[in-house]
Amino acid sequence: MSIPRDETEGDVSDTPTMIAPDDGAPFRFGEVGGRFKIGGSGTDDRFAVAQLPEIPPRTLAAPLHRHHNEDEYTYVREGTLGTMAGDEVVTAEPGTWLVKPRGQWHTFWNAGNEPCHVIEIVSPAGFETYFKEVAAAQGDMERLAQINEKYAIDMDFESVPELCERFGLTFPEL
Questions:
Q1: Does the structure show a pLDDT above 70 at 5?
Q2: Quick check: is 15 in a domain?
Q3: Can you name the residues that pair with 30 across neighbouring β-strands?
Q4: Whole-number Å distance between alpha carbons of 48 and 122
Q5: What is the average pLDDT value for the chain, to the nearest integer?
Q6: What is the pTM of this model?
Q7: Residue 73 in 3-state DSSP?
Q8: How many other C-beta atoms lie within 10 A of the C-beta of residue 130?
Q9: Count of structural domains within the chain
């Protein structure tokens, strides 16, 4: 049985709550798709959780970037996730956690030839509407810069060609 949800997020309360696989607001960033499963309104803004089941093989999920407000914790469920945090490059297999603290330049990609599926915990909450706003900007780089400023994210789009060449990846047009 699934508990009804609003369009933006799952709700976590004082009673047990089940969040079904199709619950939560879907989002897309280029070829990477996911759902926000638990939003800040249900966690007193302590954290939010997103599920990213659609990182295609050999795909860069985001340009090199850093968050000024959030820490990110990534759990690899399936596939192989490549991550660069600062100058360190790691490859994470299923069952691995990656910690990306706020202020650290990082990026991530599917390093394998099969789809990669991760769970992303962001703390504190507040990042839930970022992808919806980015999707609405659809290729408008000036608007994307405004959105990144609103969410206190620095994004280095010039890093994309070098990352793709270095790791044998593709990156979709935004």
A1: no
A2: no
A3: none
A4: 5
A5: 87
A6: 0.84
A7: strand
A8: 20
A9: 1
